[in-house]
Amino acid sequence: MSNGPAGHGARSTIRPYRETRGDARIRTFLHTADGIPLDSVYDPPSAVYGPSSAAPEAGAGAPRPASRDVVFVIAHGFTGDVERPHVRRIAGVLRGHGAVVTFSFRGHGRSGGRSTVGDKEVLDLAAAVEWARVLGHARVVTVGFSMGGSVVLRHAALHPGSVDAVVSVSSPARWYYRGTAPMRRLHWLVTRPGGRLVGRYGLRTRIHHRDWDPVPLSPAQAASRIAPTPLLIVHGDRDAYFPLDHPRMLAAAAAGHGELWVEPGMGHAEHAAGDALVARIGDWAAAAAG
Residue 12's pLDDT is what? Predict the structure, then answer.
């Protein structure tokens, strides 16, 4: 797939926040290597009381600040965007462990371009990671959900050494999967003109009409190329989109390098990732990133 004009997202009237010492929120548009504007937000770390944002014991004293060295770059799922409540909630939990960068993928929300459903989105994540480095953070952790989960895998494989840890949640392992009803509906949304209209006007997602050419590196192939960067694969045992053979295929491709968490009772992606799980991910990532 390739992208055409930026679309209505490029005409957003959101103005950037003033760049400060890194302790203030920033909202701006980043630009990808192929010229797509991305609606992006930086949130500084919040103060927390020890691991997993637990409340202090009596007499424990002042809150321990979250690390200003670590930044989490969140890659949302298909039809998400930086303003969705579930994205903001996850960002809020991860701020207890470090700073957070969120952004809308191309074709989503106020960002420009059209969605390529995981292909050119690697360029979007690369722009967000670069911004996180420019803001002065020494350790960068990418955390992706569903489509975003496949993007963080491919980004780490294609740009070795660019991040310090990778977390992939509810990601597919292979392309063109249609084995569940939700995935059959998603294929209709992406491949049919009527589906793309629903995406544009009903889901705030503008989808490119062209097929992939060439077909991008699959998530499983990417997982095999991420070592030695720490990798965490998280998947729910009630995921209605991708059954458990997907995370197991990713873990097998990582050949013992990636850690696999199968979460009992969890469904799919951001909506199903509770605050306690996100806090555990934050604990793991902050430690794994060194």
Answer: 33
Divide the 290 residues of the chain into consecutive groups of 10 and give the mean pLDDT of each group: 37 36 83 97 75 39 60 97 96 96 97 96 98 95 98 97 97 96 94 93 91 94 97 98 98 94 98 97 94
Residue 51 pLDDT = 44
Distance CA 211, CA 2 (A): 9
Say which residue the tokens 């292909």 belong to. Answer: 119
Tokens representing 227 are 């070592």
Angle at 130 between CA 290 and CA 164, to 5 degrees: 20
d(CA 48, CA 155): 30
